[in-house]
Design a protein that fits this description.
Elements: H1 2-19, E1 22-23, E2 34-46, E3 51-66, E4 70-86, E5 89-94, H2 102-116, E6 119-124, E7 129-133, H3 144-148, E8 159-160, E9 164-171, E10 176-187, E11 192-201, E12 207-217, E13 224-235, E14 238-248
Antiparallel strand pairs: 1-8, 2-3, 2-14, 3-4, 4-5, 4-6, 6-7, 9-10, 10-11, 11-12, 12-13, 13-14
Length: 251
């Protein structure tokens, strides 16, 4: 009995210690390391004329400079595929195919700068985007929010499973701000899973939307391996429902 009691106490101690184990979330890529990703964005815009838009993009991210404070990534889009339905009109484009009609040629012209130029992203070690530079790409052709949404901003301190922290994100192109509650939900064989739930406000502080989803971080580099975030937002009188899914593609 005494031996059994000691064994049970030891098991309880191990479980308790594991539950209280804390981790410091900080980006830690190897310089020169390249990751390949697929990003899938689906949007449903409720307007006098409803618009449904699906975009699938493949791209790489290479850590070209790593310092004690930040990481510089160079990102290159390899392919873009989009399908748009607006009332009776439908449009499709696939960068891996030759544009055959006038509509496809117009879309090819719009996406051409994204495919031909290299995006430079500077992130601090806590996963926050410090700056972006996409030369020769018009601002309206590039959604900065898709890059900002690739990573969660990490807390200042170590955290344990079940603990939460808050982060903010500026959506300059929409004139909005997002406030998110992030929770370190669990550690699995895939990595650290973070549950996110947030709200968006306009320049006047009025609530205009919500976001829910999750991120799975690599257990060594702490960069996103997969994520899925659903957003509902009122933009200039239109109700927009969208999802953004990101997944690492193993080469």
């Amino acid at each position: 009995m005494k031996k059994l009691t000691s064994t049970l106490l030891l098991i309880c101690f191990i479980i308790s210690a594991h539950a209280q184990e804390k981790v410091l979330l900080r980006l830690a890529p190897q310089k020169g390391e390249t990751k390949t990703y697929e990003m899938i964005m689906k949007s449903d815009i409720e307007d006098p004329q409803s618009i449904i838009m699906d975009i699938n993009m493949g791209f790489t991210m290479t850590a070209t400079e790593v310092t004690s404070e930040s990481i510089t990534y160079e990102s290159k889009y390899a392919k873009i595929r989009t399908d748009i339905s607006a009332g009776m009109m439908t449009m499709s484009y696939d960068s891996e195919k030759t544009a055959e009609n006038q509509m496809e040629k117009m879309m090819a012209s719009q996406f051409k700068p994204l495919l031909e130029n290299t995006l430079s992203i500077v992130m601090d070690k806590k996963g926050k985007v410090v700056s972006m530079d996409f030369p020769n790409v018009p601002e309206e052709a590039f959604d900065k929010g898709s890059i900002q949404g690739m990573s969660v901003s990490f807390p200042e301190h170590e955290i344990a499973i079940g603990e939460s922290w808050s982060s903010e994100i500026e959506l300059e192109q929409l004139g909005a701000k997002g406030t998110t509650t992030n929770t370190l939900a669990e550690k699995t064989a895939d990595g650290y899973r973070i549950a996110v739930s947030g709200t968006y406000t306009d320049a006047n502080g009025n609530s205009i939307g919500t976001a829910t989803g999750y991120y799975v971080l690599d257990s060594k580099t702490f960069f996103t391996k997969t994520s899925n975030v659903a957003i509902e937002m009122d933009v200039q009188g239109s109700k927009v429902k969208s999802t953004m899914e990101l997944r690492e593609v193993k080469q």
